[in-house]
Request: fold
Amino acid sequence: MDHAPTSPQTTGPPSNGAAGHEQNGTLAVHPVESISLFELAEIFLRRWRMIGLIVGGSMLTVLALTFILPTGYRAVATVLPPEQEGGGLGALVGSGGGSLSGGLRSLGHMGGNAEVFVDILSSRTVADTLISRFDLTRIFAVDHPAEAVIPLSQATDITSADDGLITLTVTLQTGFLADRAEKEQIRQLSADVANRYVVELDRINRRTAVEHARFSRTYISEQLIQTRRDLDSAYAGLQAFQQTNRAVNLGEQVRVGLAAAASLKAEILREEFQLRLLERDRGPLDPFVRESQAKIAELRRQYQAMQFGGSGGGRGDFTLPIDRVPALARQQANLERDVKIQEELYQFLQQQYHYERIQEARDVPTVRPLDEAVPPYRRASPKRFLLLLATGLLSSVLAVAVVLLTEFAEREKRRSPESYAKLRASWRRPTAPTERP
Reply:
């Protein structure tokens, strides 16, 4: 029986030319070929125009944008750490001794501290003044002054160093496509705004100092009147006692104790006076208030020990307690003690009254600028060099990716033209129109 000849079957792998043909209705998948460094270099050299076009075009576009975008200018002013005494807002500081004769102590005045100065500079009051003075609604392109507060706060940076030095930075921007005149205006305006911040800080701080001194003077004046009445009453009581009982010999030890008790009582009254001013300025929970309360409690303990004796370690250990003095002498000692207390308290209040009058009347700067802001020489933004550098790096990566994808597509086209043609046809095939009923 004759058999029909059969065609030889190929059992080996398909040739490279047929690797991309359709087999059993599907597209053959080809393994990705590896590319050596020399081949990569050859690809990049061959397509250098494409790389240059992508990188150069991107950098030229960004360069053109830097001339269109708003230009920012930054002005910087620095303020020295505020003084710890001399009025104004800040920490309440005293430098008095343990008795009224130890020197004049600043009562109720608020020496500066950097944190309070920063709060003043960041306040709405200062912002409203600057917006009105420099017409910043036009600069920030807003309709109402209240809308310019947030842009101004964003354009201002206020920092305080550990040593108390305050740095104030103001950055203002032009509009798009700004000309030379507009740039010069913004450059000068940024310096003017920064310097005006310092002026407003001094104005508010000085006004607060005067108001505080006026209040303290009024309060001390009222206390002076009352103390004078108490002193006259003490004088009258002592005089009446002496007229009735003649002179009583108290003894040297009693007189020493009497003077010490009067001095201690006067110190207690002074500390209580200062405590009232502290509570008004700082509140009952402030550390200075708590420290003053603790000091008053210790002074009262010593005074009790001096009055009635005891082993409290106070000044009563070295003097005769007043309650051990005979009745008549004790009455005279109490009267003389009251006179001495009122005399020392009155003397202290007089000194403080004159001090507050000086503080109220003086008109000296309370803020000490270290460096005034000057119109900036260079722009703060846009940073042209950094933008071009970043654009060059990113566009170079993009150009390499485009070159490699293009090279891969062309190689696939050469290896499997039918598959490449079908792929392009599927991309370009229009969608069938929907038939209307």
Confidence is low (pLDDT under 50) at residues 1-29, 86-111, 311-318. The CA atoms of residues 108 and 281 lie 7 Å apart. The first strand starts at residue 22 and ends at 23. The first helix runs from residue 37 to 46.
